[in-house]
Write a structure and sequence with these properties.
The chain is an alpha/beta fold. It has 13 helices and 20 strands. Belongs to the lysine N(6)-hydroxylase/L-ornithine N(5)-oxygenase family.
């Protein structure tokens, strides 16, 4: 709950964005409070009208690539009521899920799990608002506060004040420069908006459609398979720069880089060594595809050689050099990287499975440019600020270069949220009759995960 003076209510913590990362934070802070220890009360601002995780990619035939045990809380506290297992129990599906003999739920089910957890914090979330600016309000000599401005769907501006903030915005769609001028053309869509923007094409005769997917990673392959099922007569081209679709390396020893303690190892390295580590393990996460999905696509292509009917084509070693709108569609100039030749092809729709950008230097922080030191993040995910800057700003999911490949993934949700929650709690004002800060730190010691680098 907000506190402070009547004319300027002050929130303990405002979380910007309410996806899985800040949802895990809400659960972690709730766990501290449930143990009868002082914890700041967090409120969240989310631009979506309701909770949904990757709404545009909730494909009916896509499974998670991460075990359900890496949910919002299990790796930190498997007894929590917020585990995926308890979700299944509450929904009456636990036995049926076990009978599937799989660690990997569908993406639709995992989104439902996240939504189930999020509804338990509805009273703490302001949906339908987008944060546009954060700056410092020094007020009338009282301790400086963060002033957080957001805008709702009607264009109204709302200003709130907070002692601390946690930014967890997720990635922004990465649009290749060749498509930049066509951002508003409805015939071009990023994978993040795929389901919404492909729907209008379903009313057309599929045999007349020509569809292109750009990219060589998991999302590109999933969309290609979905298009094949959705438009069985359409011509579908998957264009990518590599020689072949590459399988993701999810073998056990390699997967240990996603363990929480590997974050400590990466952060302790010099910058050059960190870059080497990221490059060495790129095959776990970037421009790679689940092996089972590769095999499904290969089976489709093989069956086409049997029937002689070619609808789906994988086009390796291709690069889009130009894109232009026309009344009949989008014309792509495509270069063959093997032969050096090029051709122009018209498509009714182009889907960009080109990934996301995660830049800690977000425009909303423009008002604090002079207070931020090098836009670097400390080990506890706190943004490094000037010495006289007292509010704390934490960042989730934008620290891959310093914390490792797991930072943008689900693998560290539970432990990262706990690190941030305990860091926030260390300076939380204790309510009456609550334990002192020393007793709080002693109580949390059992759950300490080697908080370092402050």
């Amino acid at each position: 709950m907000p506190g402070g003076s009547a004319h300027r209510p002050v929130f303990d913590v405002i979380g910007i964005g309410f996806g899985p990362s800040n949802l895990a934070l809400a659960i972690a802070l709730d766990a501290i409070a449930q143990r009868g220890m002082p914890a700041p009360k967090a409120h969240f601002i989310e631009k979506q009208e309701s909770f949904c995780w990757h709404r545009g990619m909730l494909l009916p035939d896509s499974d998670m690539q991460v075990s359900f045990l890496k949910d919002l809380v299990t790796l930190r506290d498997p007894t929590s009521r917020f585990t995926f297992t308890n979700y299944l129990h509450q929904k009456g599906r636990l036995e049926a899920f076990i009978n599937q003999r799989s660690f990997f739920p569908s993406r639709i089910e995992f989104n439902d799990y996240l939504g189930w957890a999020a509804t338990q914090f509805d009273a703490s979330c302001f949906y339908g608002e987008e944060v546009v600016a954060i700056d410092l309000d020094r007020g009338d000599g009282s301790p400086a506060l963060l002033r957080i401005a957001s805008q709702d769907a009607a264009g109204r501006m709302i200003t709130r004040h907070a002692r601390d903030a946690v930014i967890a915005l997720g990635g922004s769609p990465s649009i290749p420069p060749v498509f930049a001028s066509l951002r508003k053309d409805p015939r071009i869509t990023h994978s993040s908006r795929y389901l919404d923007n492909i729907a209008p094409f379903e009313a057309r005769r599929s045999a007349e459609l020509r569809l292109a997917v750009i990219g060589g990673g998991q999302s590109a392959a999933e969309i290609t398979l979905d298009l094949h099922g959705r438009f069985p007569e359409a011509r579908i081209d998957l264009l990518f720069r590599g020689q072949a679709l590459k399988p993701a390396d999810d073998t056990p020893f390699v997967n240990e880089i996603f363990n929480p303690d590997f974050t400590d190892f990466v952060f302790a390295q010099a910058a050059e060594r960190r870059r080497d580590i990221l490059q060495e393990f790129r095959s776990t996460n970037y421009a790679v595809v689940d092996t089972a999905l590769i095999e499904r696509l290969y089976a489709i292509l093989y069956q086409q050689t049997v029937t002689g009917r070619r609808h789906l084509a994988l086009c390796p070693r291709r690069e889009v050099c130009a894109a232009a709108p026309s009344p009949q569609g989008i014309v792509l100039d495509i270069r063959n990287l093997t032969t050096g030749g090029s051709e122009s092809t018209r498509y009714d729709a182009v889907i960009l499975a080109t990934g996301y950008e995660r830049n800690i230097r977000h425009t909303m922080l423009a008002g604090l440019e002079d207070q931020v030191k090098e836009f670097a993040v400390l080990r506890d995910y706190r943004l490094r600020m000037q010495p006289d800057f007292h509010p704390r700003i934490f960042v989730q999911g934008a620290s891959e270069s310093s914390h490792g490949l797991s930072d943008t993934l689900l693998s560290v949700l539970a432990t990262r949220a706990w690190e941030i929650a305990t860091a926030l709690a260390r300076l939380a004002p204790p309510p009456p009759d609550m334990p002192s800060l020393p007793s709080l730190c002693t109580s949390l010691a059992t759950y300490d995960i080697r908080h370092r680098g402050v």
